Automatic annotation (TrEMBL):
Active site: 50
Enzyme class: lyase
Native species: Merdimmobilis hominis
Chain's role: Involved in unsaturated fatty acids biosynthesis. Catalyzes the dehydration of short chain beta-hydroxyacyl-ACPs and long chain saturated and unsaturated beta-hydroxyacyl-ACPs.
Catalytic activity: a (3R)-hydroxyacyl-[ACP] = a (2E)-enoyl-[ACP] + H2O
Family (UniProt): Belongs to the thioester dehydratase family. FabZ subfamily.
One GO location term (cellular component): membrane
Keywords attached to this entry: Cytoplasm, Lipid A biosynthesis, Lipid biosynthesis, Lipid metabolism, Lyase
InterPro entries: FabA_FabZ, FabZ, HotDog_dom_sf
Single GO biological process annotation from the record: fatty acid biosynthetic process
Stretch forming the signal peptide: none
Entry protein name: 3-hydroxyacyl-[acyl-carrier-protein] dehydratase FabZ
UniProt-recorded Gene Ontology molecular function terms: (3R)-hydroxyacyl-[acyl-carrier-protein] dehydratase activity
Presence of keyword Cell membrane: no
Length: 143
């Protein structure tokens, strides 16, 4: 069961269609940890060109999905309400498993470090419990 649906997510982060890339938040401790879901439908716009003969989820969009989940977590803190989280860096990115239309991505981000308006999240995207993408994402909270 969703803790936050897409309409509630839109109240926290500024992303909108076609670039709101998370469908729901299923677990969250604001500022600490989040688990979100993305249901990859066969008609997602990127599958038409990546690749027409064998649709594959672009790894960079999976990283963006993780960043959006992390932004929901960071911006859910009362002191960050109404602010924007900017993507500031990606480290240690590994693409471990092919992700395809019909898969459900589980997006987990744990905020492991914060200093002032800068934070770092340990991020994992998985399908059926198997890691597909892992990375560390750095974000900056702006006004």
């Amino acid at each position: 069961m969703a803790l936050l649906n897409q309409e509630q997510i839109k109240e926290i982060i500024p992303h909108r269609d076609p670039f709101l890339l998370i469908d729901e938040v299923v677990e969250m401790e604001p500022g600490v940890r989040v688990v979100a879901k993305k249901y990859l439908k066969p008609d997602e716009f990127w599958f038409k060109g990546h690749f027409p003969q064998e649709p594959v989820q672009p790894g960079v969009l999976t990283v963006e999905m993780l960043a959006q989940a992390g932004a929901v977590c960071a911006l859910s803190l009362p002191e960050n309400k109404g602010k924007i989280a900017y993507f500031a860096g990606i480290d240690k990115a590994k693409f471990r498993k092919k992700v395809v239309p019909g898969d459900t991505l589980t997006l987990e981000v744990e905020i492991i470090k914060t200093r002032g308006s800068i934070g770092v999240g340990k991020a994992t995207a998985s399908v059926d419990g198997k890691r597909a993408v892992t990375c560390e994402i750095t974000f900056a909270i702006g006004a």
